[in-house]
Amino acid sequence: MKPESFLPDDYRPAESEPFMNERQLEYFRRKLLAWKSELQEQSAETLEGLQDSGRNVPDIADRASEETDRALELRTRDRQRKLVSKIDAALRRIDNGEYGYCEMTGEPISLKRLDARPIATMTLEAQERHERRERVHRDD
């Protein structure tokens, strides 16, 4: 067993360690894979639920309610699909050594931010600047 593949259950990346060392990368890889697996399970449950709900409901109010629920489920599933692709992109960044670094500035993204949002691609400051610019241009 490689030392980097062994992580104690209570391991948390610390600022005192070298940034994005093998243990930190393994921690984030496992976190991303667990999240992806959870999303895929939820997606499978959603599909089963949608297939079961395909029955003919005679009452128009019940049918409308069911269609609304169905549309919400489909929107949720689409959001999950997009999230899975962001998780896959983060896993690729781990594999090619780019994970944990801001795509705008090249600076390290804080461990707290990555722990809260492991698919983050920008530092908090760069993300805020990006969102401010988006708001300004959207208002044009």
Task: Explain what this protein looks like in three dimensions.
The structure is a single chain. The chain has 140 residues and is mostly helical. It folds into two domains: 19-99, Four Helix Bundle (Hemerythrin (Met), subunit A), CATH 1.20.120.910; 102-140, no CATH class. The chain is built from four helices and no strands. It has helices spanning 22-52, 60-95, 111-116, 124-138. The longest helix has 36 residues, at 60-95. The protein starts with 21 loop residues before the first helix and ends with a helix.
How is the topology of this model organized?
Elements: H1 22-52, H2 60-95, H3 111-116, H4 124-138
Quick gist of this model?
The protein has 140 residues and is mainly alpha-helical. It is 63% helix and 0% strand. It has 2 domains: 19-99, DksA, coiled-coil domain (Four Helix Bundle (Hemerythrin (Met), subunit A), Up-down Bundle); 102-140, no CATH class.
